[in-house]
Design brief:
The chain has about 675 residues and is an alpha/beta fold. Among the domains are: about 10-60 and about 550-670, no CATH class; about 175-375, P-loop containing nucleotide triphosphate hydrolases (Rossmann fold). It comes from Takifugu rubripes. This is NACHT domain-containing protein.
Length: about 675
């Protein structure tokens, strides 16, 4: 029985023993636990002396919000390593270069956006009225669009996105696991739990290659017009979009489609208050298509790709809106998009929307013909990633071995970008003379990741101080980023604009050039109109920095910030009181958006993690009694009214504090 229990109750699971075990038997407990959490408590895969996480662990890392660039890009899940920067150069022939430049130079970008010679309703077949020269001009425009799209998609980056960086997509591309349909659990729950559940499934679904998502399966009869692709942050949605677009632009796949038109929600946000027709919208975001006219859009087979619905700042109303069926008709952008998705506008056009699961509800099921889910790397693909990243075979084997020994790391490496974070930290620790223990908890790992990025920045730009030392300027900038991360985590924002940075005291130019920290952790996305959008490399990095900021506020006794967050009238009296209230606030969240944040908060209470951060946090002398109070609060939390799925984060907090007593006590119960 768990410590602190006075009844037959297992509060970590939110149920009484009788409710959880039913018969109270050992076999019943094992079966129900394995069924619910997909992990055996007596797994032989874990060594006897290694800490074992009984519950599936988290997915982490902030979404690369790919250049959607993850633009689109956040989500571009990048697979580039530092060792691949000097990749194979793809030389083109002089004839090819001359031809491409001729096509690009002939783009007529002077035509006014939206100009059209006729409306959609009265247009005749373009083939019937086009003259030979006009037909050639349009074909040249299409070729120019393909060249532009190829240049945009042929290189991928990971973590950083700087001019000239990246490696060829086709050189490193690994097929992601994509299935038709989605997990039953995929709704508004925190993506940490979604990833855990995905990892434990013996998936029987038939995978679909990204280039085949519009192709009807043999047993299906329906026409597929709208595809909605779900997947957690950083799992590779934008990467799939990029690969699909590149294959089309290179003439390899889906050549029955006349034009592939990527339009990321991130970029569309920039014109959400403007009025446009669909034709002018295309002219704005794809200048190579200036010669395209309304009648062309009605007879061609078009594919619109709306990447990153979770980043949208539009209010899409599919019930009450103006009906638009003419590509030259001007309206608000959100109304255009709704009509396009519903099929009122260009009913023959294909639509592909990607989204994190929690945001997918914005598209009515009646509008969607196929739902797919990107599930990331399989176990074999995880190993392939690390073998490709490191030319040192021995190093890759050691890293793979360590990841397999840590259930948390192994589960999180479903996400390609998390493989990148893990690789950065473990490579740094395994290739230098370090006697310290390799990270096994998330807070350990992320604390080391932050230090590695700071060190890289100093090695790149030089300086008198030692690479591992944090200057006051470093601390100030990181805490400002932490404030930004925290304030927007509460609001549910993962994308930020210049005005958001300024509100947190951040100088835009400083953030842009502070590349040792900000390029890896905080990315500047250059998009249409040269307006910048900012994001953290992955959601979990935003959550980690938010926790660092809040813990710093606690150590500095900043009661105003703490009380505003906790919404308590009574002041916080101690560390255990602070963490208890933060936990309670997180458990009240319907979608668990504060779960990982609170998990990091508990991990940061350990002096070992405070030391790793090297002065960023005021190191506290936490007496053993204080830490024990925190542990007792977690174990004694009355969670009868909390579902097991929600209360399981309490267990994660205990593991983050390196407490093994719960694991030991459950094992003792099983043996009794």
């Amino acid at each position: 029985m768990l410590k602190g229990e006075k009844s037959e109750k297992f509060p970590l699971f939110g149920v009484t023993r009788s409710k959880l075990f039913h018969t109270g038997s050992r076999d019943s407990f094992l079966k129900q636990y394995t069924h619910r959490y997909g992990v055996s408590l007596l797994s032989s895969r874990h060594s006897a002396d290694a800490p074992v996480s009984l519950v599936p662990s988290l997915p982490l890392i902030f979404r690369m919000d790919e250049d959607r660039a993850e633009s689109t890009v956040p989500s571009c899940v990048s697979l580039k390593s530092d060792m691949s920067k000097d990749g194979v150069i793809n030389f083109r022939s002089s004839d090819q270069i001359e031809r491409e430049e001729h096509i690009l130079s002939n783009w007529d970008q002077s035509a006014p956006p939206g100009e059209s010679s006729c409306s959609q309703s009265g247009s005749r077949s373009r083939d019937a009225e086009m003259k030979p020269k006009q037909r050639g001009d349009l074909q040249e425009v299409i070729e120019g669009h393909k060249i532009s799209l190829k240049r945009r998609c042929e290189h991928v980056t990971e973590g950083t996105h700087e001019a000239g960086s990246g490696t060829l997509m086709n050189k490193i591309y690994t097929e992601l696991y994509i299935t038709e349909g989605q997990s039953e659990e995929v709704d508004t729950q925190h993506e940490v739990r979604q990833l855990e559940r995905t990892s434990k499934k013996n998936i029987q679904d038939t995978p679909i290659k990204c280039q085949d998502i519009f192709k009807v399966l043999s047993e299906q009869q329906r026409h597929i017009r709208v595809v909605l692709t779900n997947g957690v942050a950083g799992v590779g949605k934008t990467f799939s979009v990029q690969k699909f677009s590149l294959d089309w632009a290179e003439g390899l796949e889906n050549q029955d489609i006349s034009l592939v038109l990527p339009l990321s929600w991130r970029e569309l946000n920039l014109i959400r208050d403007e009025q446009h027709s669909l034709l002018s919208l295309l002219h704005v975001f794809h200048p190579t298509l200036q010669k395209i006219r309304a009648e062309d859009l009605t007879v061609w087979k078009l594919l619109f790709i709306f990447d990153g619905l979770d980043e949208s700042r539009f209010s899409l109303d599919f019930n009450k809106h103006q009906v638009i069926s003419d590509v030259t008709q001007v309206s608000s952008v959100d109304v255009l998009l709704v009509n396009l998705i519903q099929g009122n506008l260009l009913p023959s056009a294909l639509i592909w929307i990607t989204s994190r699961p929690a945001a997918a509800y914005q598209i009515p099921p009646s509008c969607v013909d196929r739902i797919t889910e990107v599930r990331g790397f399989t176990d074999s693909q995880k190993e392939e990633y690390f073998r490709r990243r490191f030319s040192d075979e021995d190093l890759s084997k050691r890293i793979i071995s360590h990841i397999k020994a840590s259930r948390s790391l192994h589960i999180m490496c479903l996400i390609p970008i998390f493989c990148w974070i893990t690789a950065i930290v473990l490579e740094d620790m395994m290739t230098r003379d370090q006697r310290g223990e390799l990270p096994k908890t998330l807070t350990d790992l992320y604390s080391h990741f932050l230090r590695v990025q700071i060190k890289r920045k100093k090695q790149k730009y030089g300086g008198k101080q030692r690479p591992e030392e944090l200057t006051e300027a470093d601390k100030e900038l990181l805490l400002k980023l932490g404030r930004l991360a925290f304030e927007h985590l509460e609001k549910g924002n993962i994308m930020f604009y210049s005005e958001d940075l300024k509100r947190c005291g951040l100088d835009v130019s400083e953030v842009s050039v502070y590349s040792g920290v900000c390029t890896e952790i905080f990315r500047r996305e250059s998009v249409i109109f040269q307006k910048s959008v900012y994001c953290f490399v992955h959601l979990s990095i935003q959550e980690f920095l938010a926790a660092v900021y809040m813990f710093h506020r606690y150590t500095r006794k900043n009661t105003a910030v703490i009380n505003k967050f906790l919404k308590y009238s009574e002041p916080v009296t101690s560390l255990d009181d602070f963490l208890r209230r933060a936990l309670m606030k997180s458990l009240k969240s319907k979608n668990g958006h504060l779960d990982l944040f609170v998990r990091f908060l508990h991990g940061l209470s350990l002096e070992s993690n405070q030391r790793i951060l090297g002065g960023l946090l005021d190191q506290m002398e936490n007496h053993p009694e204080t830490i024990q109070k925190v542990l007792n609060n977690l174990k004694e939390e009355n969670s009868d009214k909390i579902s097991p799925d929600r209360s399981i984060n309490i267990f994660h907090c205990l593991m983050e504090m390196k407490d093994q007593s719960v694991h030991q006590e459950i094992q003792e119960f099983l043996k009794s």
